[in-house]
Design goal:
By secondary structure, the protein is α+β, with helices and mostly antiparallel strands. The protein has one domain (5-182): SMI1/KNR4-like (3-Layer(aba) Sandwich). It has helices spanning 5-18, 28-38, 44-52, 74-87, 143-152, 159-163, 176-182, and strands at residues 97-104, 107-112, 120-123, 136-140, 171-172. Helix 1 crosses helix 5. The mean pLDDT is 92.
Length: 184
């Protein structure tokens, strides 16, 4: 079983190389304190990311949102998206899907905290015409693979990956319609 220690060490090294002032890490108690606000447990790797690398401020493009601690956090963004989703039908944001990175233009990278491996999803609402399930794509089957793609420069957001011949289009998230309909 992989405990992800090397991945986290590599992520911390890259984050330190790319940031002039990396935010401090969270303590385990602080990270666990977010779970009652969310209504679900964080995947262990995501918790370790915030506790061993930094509380946001690193990662691809626009960087990870802090989990907690200010106005623009993963917890606050999740709660806002869920509240809007419940108040303004049709629903668009499923329970247990935590936005961790804002790509801009309403797009998010989000971790499915309810599935094994913590798949990373892409929420891309800009071309949706009424069916919010069409805004959801599976970016990576696991958070660890998604983070590794940042480290090795193979994520879709990398210019070379986007323009490469035969670059794959995002695959729709097969659970989107069911998870949005549940809105549990």
């Amino acid at each position: 079983m992989n405990d992800h220690s090397q991945l986290l060490l590599d992520l911390r090294t890259r984050a330190e190389q790319e940031s002039t002032q990396l935010p401090p890490t969270l303590g385990r108690r602080a990270a666990a304190g977010a779970e009652p606000e969310l209504g679900f447990a964080l995947p262990p790797l995501l918790t370790r990311l915030y506790c061993e690398v930094a509380n946001g401020g690193f990662g691809p493009a626009y960087q990870f949102l802090p989990l907690i601690g200010g106005d623009r956090t993963a917890v606050a963004t999740y709660r806002a998206e869920r509240a809007q989703s419940l108040a303004e039908p049709p629903a668009h944001w499923p329970h247990g899907v935590l936005p961790v990175l804002d790509w801009g233009c309403g797009m998010y990278a989000a971790v499915d905290c309810l599935r094994a491996g913590a798949p990373v999803l892409l929420f891309e609402p800009n071309a949706v015409d009424g069916n919010w399930a069409d805004a959801w794509f599976q970016d990576s089957p696991s958070l660890s693979q998604w983070l590794a793609s940042w480290l090795d420069g193979t994520g879709w957001w990398e210019e070379e990956a986007m323009s490469a011949q035969g670059a794959a289009d995002p695959r729709p998230w097969p659970d989107a319609a069911e998870r949005i309909a549940a809105m549990g």
